[in-house]
Amino acid sequence: MTWRVAVDARLCISSGMCVGTAPDQFRFDGSQHSSPVRALIEPDDRVRDAAAFCPVEAILLTDADTGKPVPLDE
Amino acid sequence: MSAQPETPRFPFPPSSVPYDPAPEMRELMTKCPVNKVRLPDDSTAWLVTGFDETREVLIDQRYSRALVFAPGREVYGVETTLADGMIAMDPPEHTRLRKLVAGAFTERRIQALRPRVAQIVDDLIDKMRAGPRPADLSHSFSLMVPASVICVLLGVPITDVDLFHKWSNVIFGDWSRPRDEIDEAYAAMSAYMSELITRKRKAPEDDLISVLIDARDSAGKLTEDQLVQFCIGLLAAGHETTANSINMSFVALSQYPDELARLRADPGLIPAAVEELLRYVIISGSGFVPLARITREEVCLGGVTIPAGETVLPSFNVANRDPAAFDDPNRLDVGRTPKSHLGFGAGAHHCLGAQLARMELQEAFRGLLTRLPGLRMTVPMSELEFREGQAIASMRELPVTWDDA
Prior knowledge:
By secondary structure, chain A is of the alpha+beta class. Chain A contains two helices and five strands. The radius of gyration of chain A is 11 Å and the shape is globular. In chain B, 46% of the residues lie in helices and 8% in strands. Chain B is globular, with a radius of gyration of 21 Å. Chain B has helices at residues 23-31, 51-59, 93-102, 107-130, 137-142, 144-154, 161-171, 179-202, 208-217, 224-254, 257-265, 270-280, 316-319, 354-371; strands at residues 34-38, 44-48, 63-64, 135-136, 293-295, 299-301, 304-306, 311-314, 376-377, 399-401. By secondary structure, chain B is α+β, with helices and mostly antiparallel strands. The chains are: A alpha+beta, B alpha+beta. Chain A binds chain B through residues 13-17, 19-21, 23, 32, 46, 49, 52-53, 55-57, 73, and chain B through 55, 58-61, 91-92, 95, 98-99, 102-103, 105-108, 339-340, 344, 346-350, 354-355.
């Protein structure tokens, strides 16, 4: 299984929650918004946690094959 | 490492303007974003006031929270009550605990809670309107809004508010608060919470304390002490910060009559104004920075080399006044719409209740500005009295009056 990770820049408030939780998976780009280091990843609990913790729910995590959202509460 | 003679003593005396940084702090900011200071116990620390640098400290895992609580290292004030809790951990341990409650504080859950909070605000304002003037905004409103809401979420009776508020006030101590006072208040609050937990164990309810009890009893995800501490932390942090933020935000707005008039004329500006108030208003007036970090390795921060094992104080409140991050940072501008500020910290420990606090502040100011015409303080700002030894500035009272509708 492969996950697709995206950050909605319109929602992102740069809380740094994701970068603090999974520093090798998220980073701040030049405009200070968070973005995924790689768009396609192997399933990673820390990325799921980061998506669940994002205060504005700006992280979109989907199954790359089916396009369905990955459940965040597992 | 020995302190240099010129190393400034920290904390500084508070500013005469209670929502402003101390003048020494502002001066330090203009010199360097990272400054060495000497603490009351004679140890030294690195006080970080620059916006980008503070953010870096809060987000980068080379700055550890867990090491603050390493054996043999002294902690002070509110920090003494935080060991073993989520806020004393680094990822991944921190992540494991935060997961237990994060679901209750998501944007969707908070928006679903908004009508209930609006009702709480309106009921409190009805009561104020039916009561005498002047009234104490602090106790009759600012405290009661977040206290009522966190009581609903946790399943704590709001009728106990005076009891738990008194304890949490002491627990949020600064450098000067004697350790035994904090221990005593914490022990009393623990006994109270343990009793509540015992009751809920027998008869679980649809609330967060019951969720945490289940996480301990069914899944062994935390110890009994951690369970009690978690519940105390949520109850205390869930009301103390927002209560003082409502008070201090109203005081700050009162000093900017044009901004206040702008908001009254267009309540649609309230969400933006709340963000600006979260940026602008400093509620940790004592200068005590409770959420210190320890460097795991040598780091370079703002051009300063900091060796491993040093104490770093991310002064996120003050960093929100960094001119490198905000134009004219010392002016309150309710139309500013700052998208990113450090009012809730940043990184893995970014305030769990950030969205809740935002929504509470929005509803609180909607109520205050639309339903209490001409709401104003009845004493000058210089006569406001603050409780001693508080890490978060806590007013004894905030006398206000308003006009007939």
